[in-house]
Specification:
The chain is built from 21 helices and 24 strands. Among the domains are: 201-337, Elongation Factor Tu (Ef-tu), domain 3 (Beta Barrel); 456-535, Arc Repressor Mutant, subunit A (Orthogonal Bundle), CATH 1.10.10; 552-608, DNA polymerase, domain 1. Helix 1 packs parallel to helix 10, helix 6 (245-253) packs antiparallel against helix 9 and helix 16 (506-518) crosses helix 17. A six-stranded antiparallel β-sheet has the order 16-17-18-19-15-20, with no helix packed on it. Strands 7-3-2-11-22 form a five-stranded parallel β-sheet, with helices on one face. With 612 residues, the chain is α+β, with helices and mostly antiparallel strands.
Length: 612
């Protein structure tokens, strides 16, 4: 077998899907290499998209022209806006997806994408020539290319743990990738280990839902994609139950058989989505933990037990499940298990997600130490775009922290690294009042259009929303009630554009009602701007100060070891990270403002031609 492509994407998960499509849309001849085309876009853990922080990423992917939001809207079974009781800045759209329908939808979309070919086989080696990527060795032959994007998920040298049993595999019934991990080491990457896990799956017909609490979706579901104004979907319920003291007692009695505590697993796991064993260890006084029973599809009997990820032996899992209310007679279709896998610490990457050790080699997704479909997809989109842009001799696509949660995530990864699987939260973003789910199109669609990711239809729709926003802004600013503008009224608690229409002059109220009917998300997003106007102004002031540092580039060839007034620790960390600007240098863990002052003086002397 011999193929010739511009870009090869290794792995068909959520990062690989977005990477392959992005590079193909930008005109690069792209191959997506996967063991099986049938597993592309598989939801190997919880069949859900979005959540707090994660939902914002999905809307950003969509605003840029990616697939995930459209796929979620097309195949979602239940839609909920999380954090409704709090401010809109931390609202998080989420949907429960039909896992089979989701994968099938994405596979169909890829099959119609120009410049994209699906190659079934195992990628085993990164081929190198003249100091840069030259191709990929696949079982059966070689594929030549000019860039490679590795999105191997949890498959690199992966081991699965179920009690005392250990067997190779990156997902249930799918083999681990050993050769590729060894090849990445030969390319010069440092490789370390992480761990993740999954809960047991149950047969829906064996659950007594009368003993569980029902959770329905929102009466009016909110779409993920800005191409959809509304969703016509028959929603299905999820259910809530909880563990009991008897369950906790049984788990503690079997800690000596849990791979996490026997030394069988030594890698770090996700702090914010821990196993039930870890929950009991960290919260010994809690008498119960919530268990969300989430259906995996409309045409499947499988139910995902969100909240009890575990790698305990089967007999312990049987006891645990049977002593949870509503699950007394539950049939376990698949036991929970843990996966230990290789990842490449992401400080070895530039902000484009290209590796520093080998030109043309990009990494995206869990191989960078992240967790979650959404984080993986966001990285994949940027890696695919940047690989294609680089080959075309164009400027890279690097999102700032004030522009997108995707920008926050990538800056965190390449600047600070990870010690455990990285998960996005709104608290990670300094400018979260501005980085809301409702305004992702206003922040990013113009960037997607300029890059070439956002198509003509999306751009036309965006321009219509912008025009509606400007018309609504004029109404808010110029219409007065009792001596105050509507903009000022909207700062009051509970104020909404729809509520103010009846108090407005007929002609103006009719125009606003029309705008709300035709562009509801755009107008309501503007109203949120009004509510947060004072706080956003403060954010912008802080942003301007940081932007001054972000606008001061650091020459890539700078020799930190030669800066005699820089602390030894600072020299080591800056030499390892090689930040692209002073702002990124300040965000490196352990770097102080005094270190930045030394750097500023050095850069000033370089500009003047003086020696330090």
């Amino acid at each position: 077998m011999q193929y010739d492509f511009d870009i090869v994407v290794i792995g068909g998960g959520h990062a690989g899907v977005e990477a392959a499509r992005a590079s193909a849309v930008l005109g690069a001849k792209t191959a997506l290499v996967t063991l099986s085309a049938d597993t592309i876009a598989q939801m190997s853990c919880n069949p859900a998209i979005g959540g707090v922080g994660k939902g914002q990423i999905v809307r950003e992917i969509d605003a840029l022209g990616g697939l995930m939001g459209l796929a979620a809207d097309a195949t979602g079974m239940q839609f909920r806006m999380l954090n409704r009781s709090k401010g809109p800045a931390v609202w998080g759209p989420r949907c429960q997806s039909d896992r089979h329908a989701y994968a099938a939808w994405v596979q169909r979309e890829l099959s119609r994408t120009e410049n994209l070919s699906i190659v079934q086989g195992e990628a085993m080696e990164i081929l190198v020539a003249n100091g840069r990527v030259a191709g990929v060795g696949v079982d059966g032959g070689d594929i030549s290319c000019r860039a490679v994007i590795v999105t191997a998920g949890t498959f690199l040298n992966a081991l699965m743990h179920l009690g005392e049993e250990i067997f190779p595999g990156g997902r249930y019934d799918e083999p681990a990738s050993v050769a590729l991990g060894d090849s990445l080491r030969k390319c010069g990457l440092r490789i370390e280990r992480l761990k993740t896990g999954t809960p047991p799956r149950l047969a829906a017909g064996s659950i007594n839902y009368d003993r569980c609490r029902r959770q329905d979706g929102d009466e009016v579901p909110t779409p993920f994609s800005f191409l959809n104004d509304s969703l016509d979907v028959e929603q299905v319920p999820c259910w809530l139950t909880e563990t009991t003291p008897q369950v906790h007692e049984a788990i503690r009695a079997n800690f000596h058989r849990a791979p996490l505590y026997t030394g069988q697993i030594s890698a770090s796991g996700p702090r914010y989505c821990p196993s039930i064993e870890t929950k009991l260890e960290k919260f010994p006084d809690k008498t119960s933990h919530q268990v969300f029973l989430e259906p995996e599809g409309r045409d499947t009997d499988w139910v995902y037990c969100n909240g009890i990820s575990t790698s305990l032996p089967p007999d312990v899992q049987e006891f645990m499940v049977r002593h949870i209310p509503g699950l007394e007679d539950a049939k376990i279709i698949r036991f929970g298990y843990a996966i230990e896998y290789d990842y490449a610490p992401p400080t070895q990457l530039d902000a484009t997600l290209e590796t520093k050790c080998l030109a043309g080699l990009y990494l995206a997704g869990q191989v960078n130490g992240t967790t979650g479909y959404e984080e993986a997809a966001g990285q994949g989109l940027l890696a695919g775009a940047n690989a294609a842009l680089s080959l075309a001799g164009r400027e890279p696509l690097v999102l700032r922290r004030d522009q997108a949660y995707i920008g926050v995530m990538i800056d965190d990864l390449v600047t600070r690294g990870v010690t455990e699987p990285y998960r996005m939260f709104t608290s990670r973003a300094e400018y979260r009042l501005s980085l809301r789910a409702d305004n992702a199109d206003r922040r990013l669609t113009q960037i997607g259009r300029a890059t070439g990711l956002a198509g003509e239809g999306r751009w036309k729709r965006f321009r219509g929303n912008v025009e509606a926003i400007e018309r609504a802004r004029k109404i808010f600013m110029e219409t007065r009630l009792d001596g105050k503008t509507l903009w000022e009224y909207l700062r009051r608690p509970g104020a909404r554009p729809g509520k103010l229409i009846r108090q407005m002059p007929t002609e103006v109220g009719g125009e606003l009602a029309e705008l709300l009917r035709e562009h509801p998300s755009a107008v309501n997003g503007l109203a949120i701007d009004a509510r947060y106007a004072g706080y956003i102004a403060k954010e912008q002031s802080a942003l301007r100060q940081m932007q001054e540092l972000d606008d001061k580039p650091i020459p890539p060839e700078i020799d930190y070891a030669s800066l005699r007034y820089l602390r030894h620790e600072a020299r080591e960390k800056l030499q390892a990270i090689r930040p692209r600007c002073l702002g990124q240098a300040l965000r490196v863990s352990g770097i102080t403002p005094a270190d930045i002052t030394v750097l500023q003086i050095h850069l000033a002397t370089l500009g003047s031609g003086k020696k330090t």
